[in-house]
Amino acid sequence: MFVDFTLSQGATVLATLTPLVLGLQGSGLEPSGLQAFPWLSASILFPIAAALLIPFIPDPGDGKTIRWYALGIALATFLLTVGGYLNGYDPAVEGLQLVERVSWLPNLGLAWSVGADGLSMPLILLTSFITALAVLAAWPVTFKPRLFYFLILAMAGGQIAVFAVQDMLLFFLAWELELLPVYLLLAIWGAKKRQYAATKFILYTAGGSVFILLAALAMAFYGGGAPTFEFTALMAKNFPEKFQLLCYAGLLIAFGVKLPIVPLHTWLPDAHGEATAPVHMLLAGILLKMGGYALLRFNVQLLPEAHAHFAPLLVVLGVVNIIYAALTSFAQRNLKRKIAYSSISHMGFVLIGIGSFSPLGTSGAMLQMVSHGLIGASLFFLVGATYDRTHTLQLDEMGGVGQKMRKMFALWTICSLASLALPGMSGFVSELMVFVGFATSEAYSLTFRIVMSVLAAVGVILTPIYLLSMLREIFFGKENAELAAHNQLVDAEPREIYIISCLLVPIIGIGLYPRILTDSYRASIEALVQRETLALAKVIHPPTPGLIRLSPMAELLPPGRLQAPALIG
Amino acid sequence: MDSAAPLAWLIPVLPLAGACLVGLGLISFNRTINRLRKPIAVFLISCVGASAVLSYTILAQQLAGAGATELLFNWASAGTFNLEMGFRVDPLGAVMLALVTTIALLVMVYSDGYMAHDQGYVRFFTYLALFSSSMLGLIISPNLLEIYVFWELVGMCSYLLVGFWYDRDAAANAAQKAFVVNRVGDFGLLLGILGLFWATGSFGFEEIGSRLQEAVAGGSLPNAAAILLCLLVFMGPMAKSAQFPLHVWLPDAMEGPTPISALIHAATMVAAGVFLVARLQPVYAPFPQVQLVIAVVGTITLVLGASIALTQMDLKKGLAYSTVSQLGYMMLAMGCGAPVAGMFHLVTHAFFKAMLFLGSGSVIHAMEEVVGHEPVLAQDMRLMGGLRKFMPVTAGTFLIGCVAISGIPPLAGFWSKDEILGQAFGSFPILWLAGFITAGMTAFYMFRLYFLTFEGQFRGNDSAIQATLLAAAGKAPAGDGSHRAGQHASQPHESGWQMAMPLVVLAVPSVLIGLLGTPWNSRFASLLDPEEAAEMAAHFSWGEFLPLAGASVAVSLVGIGLAVAAYALHKLDLGQVVAARFPALNAFLANKWYLDDINDKLFVQGSRKLARQVLEVDSKVVDGVVNLTGLITLGSGEGLKYFETGRAQFYALIVFGGVIALVALFSVLG
C-alpha cells in the first residue's frame, strides 16, 4: 500500500521532471543507463533548477507564494530520493547502485558520476527529509524570502550531491559549493554576531577543504597515467603505507573540522549560535554528517591501511569529544550554544564507532549520524521556536516557562530524552551499538578498551546532567515574572507540533526496531569492515603486542567465546 | 485451558498503547482531552486491569506447574552479532507481574480521589500507565540488555512523576537528582553488561552465569576481573534500589505526588534493583566476595535508613527512609544467598509499604484542607496529631501497616523479615546483629510516626507552629489569618471511597500474605524454587526457629514500648534523655549522616566548577588560538575591519575563487 502511494506520487514528480531531464540530454549530459530513471541526478539537479526559477515566481512580496513553492520542491525532492530508494536500491547489495556516469571533462579525469551504497543512501534520505522539514520550519522568515528559499533549495541539491557523487573532484566541488549557501544564510539571516560567525565558518571549512583538494590530486595522480578521481578507481590503487598516512592526516583535518573534532570545533558554537532555526536544523542535521560520511568514504574505504594506524587516535578523539563538549555544554548559559556543544559531544560516538573495527560499532556510527541528524534537528528547531516566544536565549532570563507553554514543554522533554539516549529512541540504539562494538572489538588491547569504554560511559552521566539542568532552568519552577510580562508565551502551534512529530516518528521507529534502518546499509558496512580488518592484519603483521593493540587476553579466550551465540533457547 | 504465556507481551503493551493514545491526544487536542477526565481514567485503568487479569492467569498457570517460556526475535544485528529481544515467563516474573499490576491498579483508583482537583489529572494517569508498562516490561525481560532498556524507561517515568508539579523548585531539583543519581548507577550497569558480554558473549542470565564460571575455572578470565564485572553490574541495583551511597535520591523523590511515592518509590520501581539481583543469582552465586559486598552494602543501608528515620518530622520522608532501610534488608538477603527470602520480603513489603504511603497520602490530603497546599506544612507531623478521630479507616490501616513492618506475628512483615534474619544469622552473624537491632529501631520509628500522626491532640490550627515551620523552610507565611480561615476547613476529614477502598484492600495481604511463606511450609518458596522449599521444610526445627523469632519479636516489642512511652504516654522525653546528651549523634542523624552535604560539595559544585573551567579553556585558549591566527593572517587591524564591515563575503569569494583556480592550474600542469 505504501509502495503504491509513493509510486503514484513518483509518477507525478516524474511528469514535472521530464522537461528537466530532456534539458539535460539536450546539453549533452546523457545518463549512461537510459533504461532507468536517473534518480540521483534528478534529486541533485531538480532542487537546484527549481531554485533558479524562484526569481520568476510572482509573489506579492510577503513570501507566501514562495514558501509554498519551496515546500513543494523540497517535498518533491524527498519523494525523488524515496523513489530512488524503493525502485533502484537493493539493501542486500554491498556495492554501488543507482549508478550514473557521464564523462564531463575527460582531460581532467572529471566525470559526472553518482551512485549510492549503504554509506550514502541513508544520508541522502536524511538530507531530503530534513530539508523539507527545514522549509516548513522557515515559515516565519519574512526577510528576503526569495533569496532565503533559493539558498535553502540550492543547498539541498549540493548536500545530496556530496553524498551521492562518486568522483573525488566532483565531491570537492560539491563540498565547496554547499559552503556558499550556508555562508550567506549565516551572514544575512543570523543574529548579532553573524558576520564573525559566518566568516569563521567559511575560513575554517575552506581552510580544511584545501586538504581535500591536495589529497584528491595526490591520489588521482599517483601511479602515473591518466588522472582518475573516481572512488572505484582509487580503491583499486594500492597506495603505499606512507602515502596513505599523509593523505589520511590531511583528510582527517578537513573532515575533522566538519564533524567537528575537538579542538577543530570552535566554528560550530559560533555558527550554530548565530544561525536561525531552519539553518540551524540543516547545520546540525546534515552538515555535520558530511564529516562522518567523508571519514567513512575516504579515510576508511580508500586508505584502510592508514586507518589501521590512525584508528586508535580516532577513538581517543571521540572520547575527548564526548567528555569535553559535554562539560562545556553544561557550563554554557546560552541555550543555542548549549545544544551546539551537545552536538559535538554526540559526534564523539561516531568517531569511536568508525575506529572500532567491528561491524556492530561501524554500523552504530552510521546509525548515530542519522539519529543525531533527527534528534539534533528537532532540538534546534525547538530552540528556535522557544526563542520566537521568549526573545532571549539566556537561561538566566528564563524559568517557569512551562506554566504557559505546556505542549512546548512536552516536546522539549521528549526531544531531550531522545538526546540523552533514552531506550526506545534511536540515540540509545546507536550509542549501545558503538559501545558493544567497541568493547568486543578484537583490534584493541583490553586495557585500551576498558579505559576508553569507561571514559565514554562518563558521557552517559554527563549528558543528562546538562540536558535536564537545561529543562529545569527553562520550564520548571515559578514563572519568571519579567519574562512573562514582556513576552507573549503562546503555546506550540500545530505546524510546530507537526514538524517535531515528523522527526519523532523515525526516532522512535528506529529506537523500537533498529533494523528498519540498519538493514539498509548492513551489507556495505560489513564489506567496509572486512576491508579495514584485512588492512589491519596487513599492518599489524607480525603482531606487536602493545598497550593499544591486540592483547594476549584476546588470544587467551577461545575464539568461539567472542562470537555472539544464538540466544534463542 | 491454553497457556497464556505466549500472550505475556500484551501485559506491558496494553498500558503502553493506552498511554500513547492519551498522550497523543494531550498534545493534539489538549483542552478536549483534559475535560474527559473520568472516561480517560476508566480507559487507562481498564488497560492496566486487562494486564492484571492476564498476569493473574499466568500466575495461576505457573502455580499449576507450567514451565518457563521464552520467546525472542532478532532486534539488531551487524556482522556476526545479533542482539535479541523478547520476553520470558517464569515463576519469579509471574509473581512480580501479579504484584505490580495489583498495586498499580489500586494506586490508579486511589489517584482518582487524590488528584481529583489537580489540573494535571489526565497527564498523571498517562504517566501512571506509562510507568506500569515500563515496569511490566522490565519484569518479563529475558536478558540483561532488555532489562537495561526498561530500567532506563522506569527511570524516565520516575523523573516525569517526581517532577510532576513542575512549578515547585524542590520537585524540579528532586526529579533531576533522581535521574542523574540513577544514571550514575546505570553507568556501572552499562559497563558491567558490556564487560560480561565481552567475557561470555551473551546477555542471558543463565548463560552468563555458567560461562563466566567456566571462564574463571578455565583460567581465561582472572577471578578479580569477574568480580569487578559483577560489582559493576551491581551499581545499577544500588542506585535503583537506593542502596548506600546512592540512596540520596529516594528521600528527595518524595516531592512527587503521594500515589507515586507508594507505587514507584516504595512498592515497585525501587524493588527492581532487588529483582535484578535475584535474576542475576546464577551469575553472582559462584563469587562469595560479590555476595559479601552485596550483604554489607545492604546492611549499611538498612542501618542508615532506620537511623535517619528516627528523627524525621516529615511523614513522607520518614516513610521514605523506612523504605531505604527495608530495601537494605532485601539486599542483605540477596547477599546471604537467599534470593527467595529477599523476594518474599519484597512482596510483603510492597503491600504494607504501599498501604502506608497511601495512608500518608490520605493524611496529607486531609491536612491540605486545613493548612493549604504547602508541603512544608501539610506533611509535617508537628501539625498533625489526633487524626484517628477524624479518619478512622486511614488510622486503622496505618496501624496494621505499622504492626506488619515491625515484625509482629502473624502479620506479613514478621515472616519475611524473620526469614532474612535467619539466613543472615547463618551466613554473617555480625550483619545479623545489625539487622536485629535495626528491627527494634524499625518498630520504634514506625510507631513514633503513628502516635505523632494519629494520637494526641490535633495541632493543625496552631499558627505559631506553622510560622516556625515556614521560617525554618525559608518560606514566607502564606497570606494572613483571615485568608486562611476563609479558605480552609478547621478540621480534617476522612478521604472518599476511591482513597479508602485501596487502603482496605491492601490491608488484607498485609495481614495474611506472610502465611504463604511460613518456614515449615513455604508456598512462596515452592513456587520460586521447589528444591529450596523442600530443603527448608526438611531442615526446619522449632528449636532453631523459636529462639531467633522470639528474639526479633522481643526487640520489636521493645521498640514499640519505647515509642508508646515517649509519644503516647509522654512518660519519656527523648529530646532530653537522648538528644540533649548526645548532640553530635542527634545532629548526625538529623543531617542524614551529612551525605547530602558531601554530595553537594563534592559532586554538584565540583562538576559545575569543572565545567566552567573547561568552558573557560574552550573560549579563551582553544578559540583564542583560532582568533589569534585569524587576526595575524588578516593583519591585525585590517582583520577587525573585515569582520565588522561585512566585506568578509568578498574575502570568502576570493578564497573560493582561489581554490577553483588551483584546480584549473593543477589540471593544466597534470
What do these coordinates show?
The complex is a heterodimer of chains A (569) and B (670). Chain A has 569 residues and is an all-alpha fold. Chain A contains 23 helices and two strands. Chain A has helices at 2-26, 39-52, 64-88, 121-137, 145-164, 168-177, 179-189, 194-221, 231-236, 241-258, 267-274, 277-300, 304-331, 335-354, 359-390, 406-419, 426-439, 446-475, 481-486, 494-512, 515-539, 552-556, 559-562; strands at residues 97-105, 110-116. Chain B is mainly α and 670 residues long. Chain B has helices at residues 10-28, 30-35, 37-63, 91-114, 121-139, 144-162, 169-200, 205-218, 223-240, 249-252, 258-267, 272-279, 281-284, 288-309, 315-335, 339-371, 375-378, 387-390, 392-406, 412-427, 429-454, 463-472, 481-487, 497-512, 523-528, 530-539, 542-568, 574-579, 583-590, 595-634, 636-645, 648-669, and strands spanning 69-78, 81-89. Chain B has a two-stranded antiparallel ribbon. In chain B, helix 1 (10-28) runs antiparallel to helix 5 (121-139). The longest helix of chain B is centred in the last third of the chain and has 40 residues, at 595-634.
Briefly note the structural class of the backbone of chain B: mainly alpha
Portion of residues in helices of chain A?
over 70%
Strand content of chain A: under 5%
Mean pLDDT figure of chain B: 83
- C-alpha Rg of chain B (nearest Å): 29 Å
Q: Biggest interface pair, residues each?
A: A-B, 104 and 89 residues
Which value, in Å, is the CA radius of gyration of chain A?
23 Å
Estimate the mean pLDDT confidence of chain A: 82
- What is the assembly state of the chains in this entry? heterodimer
Question: Hey, roughly how much beta strand do the residues of chain B contain?
Answer: under 5%
